[in-house]
Amino acid sequence: MSIQESSLAIPTMQNLPAARPSEGRSYWFPAAALILAVNFCFLVFYVFVGYKKLFNADSAMKILLAREIIDSHHFFPPDWYYGNNDIVVVFGQLFAIPAMIFLPAGFTVHAISGLVTSILVLHSVWLATGLAPIGKTQRTLITASMAAGISGLLAENLYGQASYGTILYMSLYLIYCLVRLTRAQSTKHVVLWSVLLCVLITTEFWGNPQRALITIGMPFVTAALWSIYRPGDHRGGAGRASLLGMAASICAGIGGGTILYAVTFAHVNNAARDASSIKWLPYDAIVGNLAILGKEMLVIFGGQPPGDSELLSVIGLYGAVRMVVAILLVWLIVRAVATSARPDGEVRPLAIYGSVALLSVCFLQVATTIPNLAEPIASSRYLVPSLITMAIAALATPLDMRLRPIEFISVAVVLAGLLTSAYPTFVRSDPQSHMNLGLQQPRAIDFSGLARYLEDNGLAYGYATYWNAGPLSVLSDERVLVRQITLDGPLPTPMRFLSSDRWYLADAWKGETFLVLTQEEANKVDWKQLAALGLPVSRKLQFGNLGIFVFGENIAAKLPGWDIRFKQPVTFHANAGAPTQVGSLQERGDAKALVARTTAKGALFYGPYVSVARGTYRLTFDVEANGNPAAVARLDAASSPGGTILAQKDLTESHGPQQLLFSIEHTSTMEFRVWALGNGEVAFKSVTIQRAEP
């Protein structure tokens, strides 16, 4: 039934009863616009005020990256470490950079970036709903529903941290350009929409071709093919010019984006996830994950019942309403997926795209180890873009009370529930979608208060673990800079993931530095070894359950492996923790040495697995080896993982320092190894690395 025919559908500009058009125009659409305006105000409050209490390290990344871009004068900073083979192209850092011309890299800049992202999300939703033959009132209500945030988890991922908000608006813009291209009636419009489509595809594949192929490439190509075919459509498919433009855009976008990725990736640093760790799950685990998948969808749509609340309390009753709304919306989405291939579907390209994307992500969710479903709420973020796309497709269907009363009532109930979710979501909800209609619980660490405390104690540069570092730097408006470290060994080491090499240079800061650690983290540190390196704790402060350990100088100047340029020599000694296959630790003169007996064969020393920047370096091994015409020991330098040998040297004897030169083209993790070859006793005392070029 056409949307223009008289029906009991949701009133819109097109389908209001003919007897009262002026009443419809003066009431329904302005009411919908007012709801959108109110929800948008709540959204602005969340981005600029409410989210400050929820701000985290992942949120801080875009601001820290924007600072690196400005300081390095490179859009892809050479010292920055990207993660998991992703290159950040279109993301919140784009909108933070202009704001940082006038403001420090603080929370206000983050809020401005989040606001721009939020506007783009809502604009893309408005355009996507316009692909369907529905009136402005229904389009406005759907956009207002998205502006309401729906749940704490959605608000975090779409508007707060905004990572998946970027994916969503790029996806919706892609589909909009595709549909406009297939409907283009002139050469000018064909060229325009083809170019825009090509730019969007190129940008997505520039970020990571493998990820883009799964999350955007396959869904988009499927939607494009279906738009061309249009089974049962007597109007025919797209015109020849549109087909050529579509094919050229897809091929040029995928090819161009992949080439740009390869060229860019060759000049940046990356901390990649080990692909070998991704595995298929056994059958029983897959079946169990199907139930978790249902929970994830409820959480995303705010339908998780509030735990420990009485059923007949205000919180309990509201939770019940939200659960009903979430279940109805999931049903509408399932129905939209099942009917997306029907030839009469008015939002067919959007539904096809969303269906393929949703089914692909769901398959990976339940059948592989890519997400960590031990934390289903956190892993549900992967579903956000495709699930919201399908929600839009489900709600943008033309409705008729007489022909499809169940669907009409379901959409009406869902819209009513979503439209009124702005206050609970933006004011009384957390990123796990817990509705806190009572007193909100304070977060574990008051980062703003901690930043002020550090500043009041004259501290401006320090180090902390990942989740505590970035928020302090941003929330203090850069007055206190805290860099991320790991505590995998007895000494703190830089965490080179979503971070910059220049943070850990000896000349990055002159003066006092500090470590912010929990008691558990502090117990992992070998404080005696730090003191032996010339880094005694000068004073200790306390903020809540966090210890603040202050040093009189920058610890990066004396901790081995921090400055990966090695302009100053750094020595790695044989000690009880040194890795070895065949050696034992013994006293040799005034030092300790790893000693391999005469017939031993294997690695006497390997490691230390330090990051080394591009350049040429000199290794000096302090090694002793008995004389033998056959080689007694072998020295080498190898990149890890993979063990590619960059330089090596065989020794028939040694009674002092032995040098080895090697060069690398990109920042690499390095091993400096000493091999006992079974032809004589070998003793290793230390290895020193220093840059060999000015």
Automatic annotation (TrEMBL):
The chain crosses the membrane at residues 27-49, 87-105, 111-132, 161-178, 190-206, 212-229, 241-263, 315-338, 350-370, 382-399, 406-426. This is Glycosyltransferase RgtA/B/C/D-like domain-containing protein. The lineage of its organism: Bacteria, Pseudomonadati, Pseudomonadota, Alphaproteobacteria, Hyphomicrobiales. The keyword Transmembrane applies. Keywords: Membrane, Transmembrane, Transmembrane helix. It comes from the Bacteria. It comes from Mesorhizobium montanum.
